[in-house]
Amino acid sequence: MKPAPGKALDRRHVARGRRRTLGGRRTLAWLVPLLLAAIFGVSWLRPQGGLRTDPPAGFATTTEASRRPPAESPPGMAWIPDGEFSMGCADPREIPFGGPDPMADARPIHRVRLDGFWMDVHPVTNSEFAEFVAATGYRTVAERVPRPEDFPGAAQENLVPGSIVFTPPEEPVPLRDGTPTAHLRWWAYVPGADWKHPTGPTSSVAGRDRDPVVHVAYEDAEAYASWAGKRLPTEAEWEFAARGGLSGAMYSWGETFQPDGTWMTNTWQGRFPLENTAADGFTGIAPVGSYPPNGYGLLDMSGNVWEWCSDWYRPDTYAQAARQGVVENPRGPAESFDPQEPGQPKRVQRGGSFLCSDQYCARYIVGSRGKGEVSSGTNHIGFRCVKDP
To answer: Is 156 helix (H, G, I), strand (E, B) or coil?
Structure first.
């Protein structure tokens, strides 16, 4: 789930729309195949069901070099080989579970060539982030007192640390009403919410070591990556890895949302945003390893939590890339621009979250794009890292 297409969710925007608050179980059944993949390579780790032998219209065949890494893989990381693929998303609106958004900013589909890299098998977890905080004393953006210049007119007593939390309304609400703030009906800035307190000051991550860490702003994710000797993935690297060697598939596991009736990801079932039936096993975040890996042995490349990428967001990025033929190792545009919110710097986010629904947002579709204001986190945004050989 994201705000209405083209609307980044940032704490300034939520604060303005709310007051404004500032002013006014499953087990790790997939661990064994992942360990085997680390030893023997992952070329055989192909999800079954819903696969096709020819790329869909607009896509060309994915090509890749050897899947055997050039050196021993770092702990918890999978090798993503050199390769070339078709990047982007066809209009999914006529497809089951495709949602109402044409995904126009994910076109035109274009060719990209990448050098190989390692990627974290799963998003950074609470326990991993806690290790970073213990070693460095780092305080996330959500734990810091907001700066008055970021919230002009806000009373000093309301400038308190906090973050944005999904807060379901008590009655049905329109998902779109022709305004840019419809999504504020189910989001609130909650004082005291942060990575250690994901739904507010009385909540805790105790017993949730394997959950992805959330409430991380872009600079928080960058700080962790630097400490770990890694970096954040580019948008192209993220999508190539998420596709797992498949050519133009709708999802990271194939063409069918539920192959043979199997849940492949953590999303929203039921009437959004009022009721989540948890048919996939979870009403909120799922521990990493709760669903099958993709063809590269990566977990949670769809749903569960959004993931930061290093690229600045622009809706015309793909149009610019398509003019270049095959683009090699793209790093994204030089600056951010969102015509719906000019002046708000945004980075690309990928993968969707446990709040994604085909009623409102279907960005569990592998080629689709999200975006986020860089100083904001929420309880459905996390990240993972990559490392160069």
So the answer is: helix
Beta carbons of 120 and 238 less than 8 angstroms apart: no
Distance CA 293, CA 305 (A): 15
Please name the residues in contact with 80: beta carbons below 8 A apart, sequence gap of 6 or more.
114, 116, 117, 118, 119, 237, 240, 241, 296, 386
Domain CATH number, residue 175: 3.90.1580.10
Q: What order do you get walking across the sheet with 327-328 strand by strand?
A: 63-64, 83-87, 110-114, 327-328
Q: What is the DSSP string of 338-370?
A: -TTSTT--EEEEES--TT-BTTTB-TTSTT--E
How many Cβ atoms sit within 10 Å of the Cβ of residue 231?
Answer: 17
Angle at CA 258, nearest 5°, toward 256 and 260? Answer: 95
Q: What is the pTM of this model?
A: 0.86
With a CB cutoff of 8 Å and minimum separation 6, the contacts of 253 are 47, 49, 50, 244, 259, 264, 292, 294, 302
Q: pLDDT of 88-100, one tens digit each? A: 999 999 999 999 9
Neighbours of 73 (CB within 10 A): 18
Total tally of structural domains belonging to the chain: 1
Residue 139 domain boundaries: 1-389
Q: What is the pLDDT of residues 169-182, one digit of tens each?
A: 777 777 777 666 66
Q: For residue 37, which phi and psi values (nearest 5 degrees)? A: -65, -35
Q: Strand 110-114 to strand 327-328: parallel, antiparallel, or no bridges (unpaired)?
A: parallel
**Model pLDDT for residues 312-322, shown as the tens digit of each residue:** 999 999 999 99
Tell me: cis bond preceding 108? Omega within 30 of 0 counts: yes
Token output for 1: 């789930």
